Amino acid sequence: MRVFSLLLAVFLTVCAPAFAASPIKDCKFGGKALYGKVQVVQSFADFKVQVVDSFPDLRVQRVASFPDACGRWQFVNELPDFTVEYVDGFPDFTVAFVESFPGQP
Asked: DSSP readout, 55-93?
């Protein structure tokens, strides 16, 4: 019984972050809307994001114009609505790039 309790505690400690709720609420993170003009930077970004293939916090569609809905990002080099930095670990939220149906899963 002790071994089971110990294994359960270890499992919950290691796997609990995977079952956590998305940090994005109403397509906003930290009060900022997650659509619009986006600039990729190497440091001092508004958001640190990790690109994943499955179970993202946000599905992102790259658009050339009208980034006016949740998950629609137009990548620019100047005058962004917000900036992102790609990271391999400890992101603010995760994204998956899609061709259609952007937004929260």
From this structure: S-SEEEEE-SS---STTEEEE-SSS-SEEEEE-SSS-SE
